[in-house]
Amino acid sequence: MTGPSIVWLRDDLRLADNPALRAAVDRGEPLLVLFVLDEESPGMRPLGGAARWWLHHSLASLDERLRDRGAALVLRLGPAERVVAETVTDAGAGAVFWNRRYGGPERAIDTALKASLRDRGIEVRSFAASVLFEPWTVTTGAGTPFSVYTPFWRACLAGPAPRTPLAEPRHVSGATDAVASDDLDAWGLLPRNPDWAGGLRDAWEPGELAARRRLREFLDDDLAGYDRSRDEPAAGATSLLSPRLRWGELSPHTVWRETLAGGHGGAFLSELGWREFAWHTLYRFPDLATDNLRPEFDAFPWPPLDEAALTAWRRGRTGVPLVDAGMRELWTTGFMHNRVRMVTASFLIKNLLVDWRLGEQWYWDTLVDADAASNPFNWQWVAGSGADAAPYFRVFNPELQAKKFDPDRRYIGEWAPEHVSENPPEPIVDLGETRKAALAAYEHVKQAARATKGPA
User: Fold this and answer.
1) Residues 346 and 442 in one domain
2) Which residue range is the domain that position 37 belongs to?
3) Residues 268 and 226: beta-carbon distance below 8 Å
4) Is residue 265 pLDDT above 80, yes or no?
5) pLDDT at res. 389
6) Annotated binding site
7) Minimal CA–CA distance to 283: which of 124, 139, 383, 127?
8) How far apart are CA 166 and CA 257, in angstroms?
9) Within this chain, do residues 306 and 421 fall inside the same structural domain, yes or no?
């Protein structure tokens, strides 16, 4: 069927290594690049505040880049299945291209839309773009999904190598005049009253060009020392690529290939592998943000919620130096060092005995890189309820973690300076006593699991 092509972008806000965009350009018809903000379809999770801020600026940057090449970005709001179908009608489109998604609600939308459009005679094609290895391509010898990271990643590396990234198109023949577009500012993605995003503006520059610069800086300046310094929050050794990958300003294939070309990357590439493992887990367990992956943890005896303790944790006012520093870095910049993320999560779950889902929701709202896979996956890992989980009895001691990874207290001094003063605040809980309570709760889970299984 003739007519313009529609490229429906989602978490792939880039021109380089974008298979859907490349296919649309190669089709030879004028094309329309569409982004739909869908927070209404069943199961679609509304974005958190920090993510909305990033999305606004990434979309603005993408629109500018498209205009430089002869097209523009069309923005529409509403349930994606309906909105995309309407856009096809409005544009008289003959084909729709997109890059695949792996969450349950997203797959349901895409499957239904693909069927309905093809019934109308519209060409529809989808592509692999957001993960290195698609979930159904990596399985155990028995054909089942992996539940432990090390054999999973070994199987990934033993298979075909990730594909070579695609070059970005130099010219995009736009068909934007065919349809109306929403005004980005009218979506209200940016905070206004109050405007709490000053720290985000100071810390980040969203968009594909900034993402490429950051990748180059990391590979040139930081990758060689990554293995040695990545766990030190004051060292500045982390890649800072996670929000770029979350929004698809960089593809994992680009990061993979350019890292290998630099001659380093063992530990760093394994972090890409952990991201892959999270997406593979979400694919087979779409309720990852709400349900324990290991059902025996449904018996965990969470006590009544201590609202004051939860508020203290959110605000970085627990009296525990590394926890407070991390939570304030998060609130200010929309980011937290990965080692500190584990410590703060462990403290909430295992010292305050607060359900991991409440912590996951806070990170979802405050992290610029929170995505549907990694955010709940990592919370469940710390809780002990997820895939390849850290055992519940492994409780991160935030004081020992600080001594090991922030020995000169530079990170703590930057984000929680009262803890390096003569009169630091007292912790809101006793770390030793709360650890004992956590272990007792874990024992309850084990006993409940044994009772369920019955005698051998």
Assistant:
1) yes
2) 1-128
3) yes
4) no
5) 67
6) 226, 238-242, 268, 369-371
7) 139
8) 11
9) yes
